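Tokens for Heavy metal-binding domain-containing protein. Go.
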Amino acid sequence: MTVHTSVLSAAGFDPVGPVFGTTVMDVGWTGGASCGWRPTYPSRRGPAVALPPRPAGHTAYARALRGGRDTALDRMCRAAGALGADGVVAVRFTEQRLAGRTREFRALGVAVRSRGRQRPGAVFSTELAAPEFVTLLAAGWVPAGIVRGLAVAVRHEDWRTASSLGFLVPNTELAGHTELITHVRAEARRDVAARAAALGADAVLTSGLRSAMWATGAGEDHTDQVAECVVTGTAVARFHPGHPPSSSPTVLPLRSTR
């Protein structure tokens, strides 16, 4: 891990040392998973009408993912606080599947301490490297903490999601997949904004957006499509006078996500 000591020193910070947080979680689908199936309802003007499937959340699975990542981050910040640090920069998250449903979540960063009299009320964290962190300070912003928005949803397999349609009409849009991935991305963005607001932040510098989709068996001759989205970023707040905080955070791109 590269530490830009001279850059930090120019901004009034000294590196304290690397800090690490980890947690091992059992991550599975049991307890709270719900199918995206919607029943058929009678119609007053004709035959029964089947409403399109609605994305439903896998509560327990999402809770385990969120808990593992948040706990690793919290333990890293606690380690920094024990060293007398004010914050952690250049934080990197890793996730590893150990065995079966067991996963390990890790957070690693560089603890830094301010030489000034103004000290934060709590240890902050940011994915920004030292040069970006200093640039952020020079622009009148301070990091409030790393925020990760998470959304998981499941949609019942039907003709709008069946990939087999590609054999009949190649190179065509699968509307069900589009709806599902759009849904989880919107929910993840709302989640990251809410988490930033809870930290008292004014904006979010997004550093990554990761999406995945897969099929899962939900019963005899019954398949669901599952989608997951994680939005990661640093919540930031203005510290220059004359800039009142906004009522809700604005999601700002930090770098291109190609």
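Helices lie at 5-10, 59-82, 130-138, 165-168, 175-198.
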